[in-house]
């Protein structure tokens, strides 16, 4: 094994200090053990970037594997003479299993392959959700793809203007609050949309995420173009004896979480009633009984998380479908908007697939380059999207609050005759 060349990295070494684990320690430890020149060069180039206050990665063209348009992100150094081992440092995205359940033998085989074919640096998990294999050269891409798909039974994830790798929470496998089979839906839609996942044809990226309950552990509402959130449409189940046990201090709130901090006596008014976003709850101190106006409940699940022994979701379960979340791209970040407040689902999810294809067809026809579907809806208007594309009438659940300014806009054909007469009468009385 040839001797490796190390670089002086005083600014990068500063990241080793402090109480938190450091990627610098991790990379240097691995590089020393396996004599990986690419790892030393990546640290050397990072030091140079800190010194110059600019990146030294350049985009030198599209790279990939035969038959796939996504899954590989090309990366080249603009300091190839100084750092020859990372002249190319391509990233491979590997499709993670639903809920990120792994067998250790599968992970060991993948890591052995990556030690042989690439830099050995792995990211579990990036914001994309995929397993990220960081750093290889162009000549190794087809070999890596063959090893992943034929030897290890993995596949590449999404990258570019396509459907990105779907992601879900732990679901039934770990969580008592899961309200639909997130892992089954994740797998079924991943298999159904293989062409959209591997061959970019969209205006920009499209993300599907699945959370088993409104606590939304995968942050779908903030990150996904189409979110599926478990919900219910009957009443919250209440165990009044358990509620009294929480109030009396016999049961710890939040299932005993944060037990290292003394929160003092449990105050149901302060911790639950006053924090209800719709103020739909009432604690009768005299009767020692909790009342919930379920028609006003927006299913945030705060009360259930605070008193899990006393409150549980209803039993008539399904999904709430939201659309349009994204981070900062052309415009600012935005959260999802409710599209369908409640839908019952079961495999093979044909109604979900039809819905996705309808959205994609409209987006591909009307979306601009690098325009996420949420930005397109924002540009044309939510009402037009709901009525003209989805064929559904807007309902109160589609908005956070009514308009707070005095200006009302409508198309002439949307105004009923009675409204027109009322408006004409109003203008006679108030000419200004």
Automatic annotation (TrEMBL):
Superkingdom: Bacteria
MF annotations from Gene Ontology: 4 iron, 4 sulfur cluster binding; dissimilatory sulfite reductase (NADH) activity; heme binding; metal ion binding; sulfite reductase (ferredoxin) activity; sulfite reductase activity
Major enzyme class: oxidoreductase
Pfam families associated with the record: NIR_SIR
InterPro entries: 4Fe4S_Fe-S-bd, DsrA, Nit/Sulf_reduc_fer-like_dom_sf, NO2/SO3_Rdtase_4Fe4S_dom, NO2/SO3_Rdtase_4Fe4S_prot, NO2/SO3_Rdtase_4Fe4S_sf
One Gene Ontology biological process: sulfate assimilation
E.C. number: 1.8.99.3
Sequence ranges assigned to domain 4Fe-4S ferredoxin-type in this UniProt record: 288-316
Keywords assigned: 4Fe-4S, Iron, Iron-sulfur, Metal-binding, Oxidoreductase
Gene Ontology cellular-component terms listed: sulfite reductase complex (NADPH)
SUPFAM superfamilies linked: Nitrite and sulphite reductase 4Fe-4S domain-like, Nitrite/Sulfite reductase N-terminal domain-like
Protein name: Sulfite reductase, dissimilatory-type alpha subunit
Lineage: Bacteria, Pseudomonadati, Thermodesulfobacteriota, Thermodesulfobacteria, Thermodesulfobacteriales
């Amino acid at each position: 094994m040839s001797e490796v060349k190390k670089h002086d990295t005083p600014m990068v070494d500063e990241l080793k200090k402090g109480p938190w684990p450091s990627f610098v320690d991790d990379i240097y430890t691995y590089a020393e053990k396996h004599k990986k020149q690419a790892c030393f060069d990546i640290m050397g180039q990072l030091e140079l970037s800190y010194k110059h206050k600019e990146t030294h990665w350049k985009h030198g063209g599209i790279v990939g594997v035969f038959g796939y348009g996504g899954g590989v992100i090309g990366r080249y150094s603009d300091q190839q003479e100084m750092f020859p081992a990372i002249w190319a440092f391509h990233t491979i995205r590997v499709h993670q299993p639903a809920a990120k359940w792994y067998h250790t033998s599968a992970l060991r085989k993948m890591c052995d392959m990556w030690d042989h074919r690439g830099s050995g640096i792995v990211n579990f998990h990036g914001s994309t959700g995929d397993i990220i294999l960081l750093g290889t050269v162009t000549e190794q891409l087809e070999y890596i793809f063959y090893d992943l798909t034929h030897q290890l039974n993995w596949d590449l994830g999404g990258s570019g203007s396509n459907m990105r790798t779907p992601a879900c929470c732990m679901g039934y496998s770990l969580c008592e609050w899961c309200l639909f089979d997130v892992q089954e839906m994740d797998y079924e839609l991943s298999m159904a949309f293989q062409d959209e996942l591997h061959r970019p044809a969209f205006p920009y990226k499209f993300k599907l995420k699945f959370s088993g309950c409104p606590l939304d552990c995968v942050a779908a509402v903030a990150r996904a173009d189409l979110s599926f959130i478990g919900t219910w449409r009957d009443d919250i189940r209440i165990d009044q004896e358990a509620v009294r046990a929480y109030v009396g201090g016999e049961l710890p709130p939040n299932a005993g979480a944060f037990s290292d901090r003394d929160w003092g006596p449990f105050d149901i008014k302060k911790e639950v009633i006053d924090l209800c976003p719709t103020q739909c709850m009432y604690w009768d101190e005299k009767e020692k009984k909790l009342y919930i106006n379920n028609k006003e409940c927006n299913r945030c699940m705060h009360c259930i998380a605070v008193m899990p022994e006393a409150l549980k979701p209803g039993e008539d379960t399904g999904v709430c479908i939201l659309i349009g979340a994204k981070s900062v791209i052309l415009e600012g970040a935005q959260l999802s908007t409710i599209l369908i407040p409640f839908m019952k689902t079961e495999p093979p999810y044909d109604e979900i697939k039809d819905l996705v294809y309808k959205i994609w067809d409209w987006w591909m026809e009307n979306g601009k380059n690098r325009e996420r579907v949420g930005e397109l809806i924002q540009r044309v208007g939510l009402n037009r999207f709901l009525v003209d594309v989805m064929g559904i009438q807007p309902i109160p659940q589609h908005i956070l609050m009514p308009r707070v300014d005095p200006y009302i806009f409508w198309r002439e054909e949307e105004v009923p005759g009675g409204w027109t007469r009322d408006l004409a009468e109003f203008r006679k009385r108030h000419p200004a």
